[in-house]
Amino acid sequence: MSASSPVRFGIVGAGAIAQAYAQAFGQSDQVELAAVVDSRTETAEAMAEANGCAAFSSVEMMLDEMDLDAAIVCTPPVTHRDICNTLLERNVPVLCEKPLSIDVSTAREMLQKASERDVIFTMASKFRYVEDVAKAKSIMASGLIGEVVLFENVFTGRVDMSSRWNSDPAIGGGGVLIDNGTHSVDITRYFLGQLAEVQVMEGHRIQDLPVEDTVKMFVRSESGVLGSIDLSWSVSKEQPYFIAIYGSAGTLLVGWQESKYRRSGDKDWTVFGKGYDKVAAFVKQIENFAEAIEGREPLVVTPTDALASVEVIEAAYRAMRQGDWEPIVSSDQVTA
Fold it and tell me: Looking at the structure, do residues 152 and 120 belong to the same domain, yes or no?
């Protein structure tokens, strides 16, 4: 690849999330969608035709025939290890959709392989690339709302999960806690830093699923900030914001349509953003990965962040089963 040519990506998996990536590729000159892989040949061919790229039914076929700079893995979590390892063994940088894996040991294995081969590998986490989220982090860090006391995140909505793989624990690793919760964990760590402990309570199951469809999650950061996270596939809290940060001197809200803050004593809110733009976030995510491959900027979501997301979710499931606070032990705290 030359300095002026776009970074060529292959996408593995042609489901709904891959379609969002395809939209993002269409809005960037820095990256190019060169190939699509899906075991369902017609699905791969349909996506490839719509995006002017090659279609394949296996990762191996794509790697044998294409000269790629990177790959995005958009398949169900249980398949991530084998697919990512195949790509990494061919020295292809990998951006893997969340959740990175369904258990910590698998996540460590993939990260270790990437490290040994010196290949860039991390987890996709779209909310880190939302402009309002980044602005909110800067406002919080500036001290404008004082010392942070409480952090809230809400990802709830009514979605029929009866025929989706996300609700099959053998494929997705669990229910709404690992599915939506992986985003929540990464966002919470982005704002609060390392998390020390977690508590999770499951709500009444509305859908006839073998997994949890509503949970309330509490976390405490190492600095002592308490976080509250609501996750559900079966209810909607109908709130205009998905992040709320309460400080000693004000409040900050990141919303779907508008983001704002108000300091203690202010009569009015100060609007600082227009909310969540999914495609724009995907564009920034892909471009950041491409820039990292070319050595021009660091990854926004690091391998440490990727592993931590799995570690926190694994601890969260232990907490839900045991009904008590569970300590979160990160890999850098484990001694050999």
Answer: no
Tell me the pLDDT tens digit for each residue of 165-192: 999 999 999 999 999 999 999 999 999 9
Pairing of strands 54-56, 121-123: unpaired
- Burial code (b: 16+ CB inside 10 Å, e: under 16) for 151-175 equals bbbbbbeebebeebebbbbeebbbb
Contact of 286 with 271, CB cutoff 8 Å: no
Cα–Cα distance between 39 and 116 in angstroms, integer? 29
**Ranges of residues in the chain whose predicted pLDDT is under 70:** 1-3, 331-336
Residue 251 and residue 107 share a domain: no
pLDDT tens across 154-166, in order?
A: 999 999 999 999 9
pLDDT tens-place string over residues 272-293: 999 999 999 999 999 999 999 9
Domain that holds residue 169: 127-280+310-333
- In this structure, the answer to whether residues 68 and 97 fall within a common structural domain is yes
Instruction: Please state whether beta strands 70-73 and 94-96 pair in parallel, antiparallel, or not at all (unpaired).
Output: parallel
Which pLDDT belongs to residue 330?
Answer: 77
The residue among 168, 153, 129, 9 whose CA lies nearest residue 74 is 9
Of 107, 124, 141, the position where a domain reaches its end is 124
* Structure token pair of residue 128: 């880190």
Pick from 124, 140, 167: which residue ends a domain? 124
The model's pTM is: 0.95
